[in-house]
Design goal:
This protein is mainly beta. Helices cover about 10% and strands about 40% of the residues. The protein is built from 2 helices and 26 strands. The chain has helices at about 5-30, 40-50; strands spanning about 55-60, 70-75, 80-85, 90-95, 100-105, 115-125, 125-130, 135-140, 145-150, 165-170, 175-180, 185, 190-195, 200, 205, 210-215, 220-225, 230-235, 240-245, 250-255, 260-265, 270-275, 280-285, 295-300, 305-310, 315-320. β6 and β7 form a beta hairpin. It is globular and about 50 Å long.
Length: about 325
C-alpha cells in the first residue's frame, strides 16, 4: 500500500526547486559580461558629415519658363528657394520639395524690374537682390513685391556701387561685395556703416570678389575671384589670412558646423574647408549629367542642411545633401 505524500512535503520540495533555479540563474547572470557601449553610435554623424554630400535632385523651373544662366540662390527659413534667373532678368521661386511656385521680375529699371540679377539673400521676411547692371540692391517681400532699394537717396547720400553678392551676420548686418573690389557694410536697418578693402593682389586687396559669407565668429570670408583665392577678414574688416588652390572661386557659404563651401567656377567643383581653412574634401566634376557641374557660380545652405548650387551653364540649381 502506497504512502500518501503530505502536502507540506510537496510544497517544500517545490520551494527548494524554485530556490535552486533562482540560484543557478543568478550565478550565470552575474558571470556574464556587460557589453560596452557601441562607440559607432556616437561617431556616426561625424563620419557622415566629414564626407562629401550626395546629389539629391535639380531645379530647372517650369517647362514654359526654364532657367537661363542662374547666378545666385538663397533659401528662406521655411525652405522656399529663390533663384536669380540671371539671363532672364527675373527671380524663380520653388517650394521646399523643389516644385516651381512662382516667378517675378523682368528686364527693366523700374521697381521690381532687373538687369542681370546676381546674388540673393533672405533677411527675415525680405529678399535682397543684387541688381547688378542697374547698380543697386532691390529689397522685396518674399512675395516679390518691391519694398525698397539700396542705395536710397534719403538714406545713402553719394553712395554708388554695382553689387555682386551679399551675406548677413548673426547680428543682422549685411556685407556686400562690389565690382569696385570692396566690401560694403550695412546695419540691420540698411544704414551704411563702412567699407573695407580695395583693388589689388596684395593681402587684403581684392579683384572682382563674387561672393561673401560670415561664420559664427563674425569672420568675413570673401571669394576673391580674379585673384584665385579666398580671403578671411576679422569682424572689423582687417585682413587675417588667405587660402589658395582655386582657379576662380565665385560662390561661398558657411554651414552650421562652420565648414566653408567654396564654388570654383573654372574647376567645376566645390571645395570644403574647416573654420581655419584646412581642406576637408571636394565634390563635383564637369559635365551635364546629374551630380555634375558646368561653370557653377553660387551656393546657399538651406535650413534643412541641403546645399543649393547655381549650376550656370546647365541652367539649373543642383541640390546636394546627406
Amino acid at each position: 500500500m502506497r504512502k500518501r505524500v503530505k502536502a507540506s512535503t510537496v510544497i517544500n520540495i517545490s520551494l527548494a526547486v524554485a530556490l535552486l533555479t533562482v540560484v543557478v540563474f543568478g550565478f550565470f547572470f552575474l558571470r556574464q559580461k556587460v557589453p560596452t557601449p557601441v562607440k559607432a553610435i556616437v561617431t556616426t554623424t561625424a563620419v557622415i558629415t566629414n564626407q562629401p554630400p550626395k546629389h539629391r535632385f535639380d531645379l530647372y523651373g517650369p517647362q514654359n519658363a526654364p532657367m537661363a544662366g542662374p547666378l545666385g540662390v538663397a533659401v528662406a527659413p521655411d525652405g522656399r528657394v529663390f533663384v536669380a534667373d540671371s539671363s532672364n532678368h527675373r527671380i524663380q521661386v520653388f517650394n521646399a520639395q523643389g516644385d516651381p511656385v512662382t516667378r517675378f521680375g523682368k528686364l527693366g529699371q523700374g521697381k521690381g524690374e532687373f538687369n542681370y540679377p546676381t546674388g540673393l539673400i533672405v533677411r527675415g521676411q525680405r529678399l535682397y537682390v543684387a541688381d547688378f547692371k542697374n547698380g543697386r540692391i532691390q529689397v522685396l517681400g518674399l512675395d516679390g513685391k518691391p519694398q525698397g532699394v539700396i542705395p536710397d537717396a534719403a538714406k545713402h547720400k553719394d553712395l554708388a556701387f554695382a553689387p555682386l553678392a551679399m551675406a548677413e551676420d548673426r547680428a543682422g548686418n549685411m556685407y556686400v561685395v562690389t565690382v569696385g573690389h570692396e566690401v560694403l557694410v550695412f546695419d540691420k536697418d540698411d544704414r551704411f556703416v563702412k567699407r573695407f578693402a580695395k583693388g589689388g593682389s596684395k593681402d587684403g586687396e581684392l579683384a572682382y570678389p563674387n561672393a561673401v559669407a560670415v561664420d559664427s565668429k563674425g569672420r568675413i570670408w570673401v571669394a576673391d575671384s580674379n585673384n584665385g583665392r579666398v580671403q578671411m577678414f576679422s569682424p572689423e574688416g582687417r585682413y587675417v589670412k588667405q587660402f589658395g588652390g582655386m582657379l576662380t572661386p565665385r560662390g561661398i557659404a558657411v554651414d552650421g558646423r562652420d565648414r566653408v563651401f567654396i564654388v570654383d567656377t573654372l574647376q567645376h567643383k566645390v571645395f570644403v574647408v574647416d573654420s581655419e581653412g584646412k581642406e576637408l574634401f571636394t565634390f563635383g566634376d564637369r559635365g551635364v549629367e546629374e551630380g555634375q557641374f558646368n561653370f557653377p557660380n553660387n551656393i546657399a545652405v538651406g535650413p534643412d542642411g541641403k546645399f543649393y548650387i547655381a549650376d550656370r551653364e546647365n541652367n539649373r540649381v543642383s541640390v546636394w545633401g546627406y
